[in-house]
Amino acid sequence: MSRTPVREALSRLAQEGYVSLLPNRGFICKEIGMQEAEELYDLRESLEAFAVEKAIVRLDSNGLEKLQHKIELYGQDISKRFSRERLLYDQEIHLEIADIAGNKTLKNTLSQVFERIVLKRKVDALYDEARGLTAHQEHLRILAAVRKRNVQEAVRCIRVHIENGKKNVLSDLRQRAEIRAFHSIENGA
């Protein structure tokens, strides 16, 4: 493959905010920033509250079974070290709810939001270990409300779940910024 299509692809990724161009050095992957994280999680909350409401209306035993299976997969992963794979398991749970809702545009939009979160999120050591277990419990509460077809409770549970995820991500980003600031001071920059 020639350099031109690679350069064009990297330029497109830069336009979409996934990478940054460092003149005379190349491209680097961009980490999600505080404002972008807040905006994406706020958007997720709105989209997913709508999705769970519509999903309950269209719910059948097959959809419920698929959702339960995806939540079980996430639950099996929480005993392991936090990884991109867990983010993908979480994404699959939420996209399944959107799929049950039967709105392809909603699912595609939510998928794009997750793509930005998952691709730009660092998954190294700063993650709060307890968050995986808490998130799993929140998923189970969402499932229980969906199973009972309790729209108000399902919407409430999904909002709480996304708000807690947002707080966790913002805390992680703040810690990273503090560490970078400390290293800058330590290195005399």
Question: Can you put this structure into words, describing what you see?
Answer:
The chain has 189 residues and is mainly alpha-helical. The chain folds into two domains: 1-30, no CATH class; 33-186, GntR ligand-binding domain-like (Four Helix Bundle (Hemerythrin (Met), subunit A)). 77% of the residues lie in helices and 4% in strands. The protein has seven helices and two strands; from the N terminus they run H-E-E-H-H-H-H-H-H. Strands 1-2 form a two-stranded antiparallel sheet. A hairpin with a 3-residue loop joins strand 1 and strand 2.
SS-based class: mainly alpha
Number of domains: 2
Low-confidence stretches: none
| Strand segment count | 2
CATH superfamily grouping of the largest domain: GntR ligand-binding domain-like
CATH topology grouping of the largest domain: Four Helix Bundle (Hemerythrin (Met), subunit A)
Helices, by number, come to 7
C-alpha geometry:
globular
Helix content: over 70%
Approximate strand percentage: under 5%
Order of helices and strands: HEEHHHHHH
Q: CATH top level of the largest domain?
A: Mainly Alpha
**Oligomer type:** single chain
Described by strand count, sense and barrel closure, the largest sheet is:
2 strands, antiparallel
What's the Cα radius of gyration? 19 Å
In the sheet with the most strands, the strands line up as 1-2
- The CATH architecture name of the largest domain reads Up-down Bundle
N-end to C-end Cα span: 41 Å
Average residue-wise pLDDT: 86
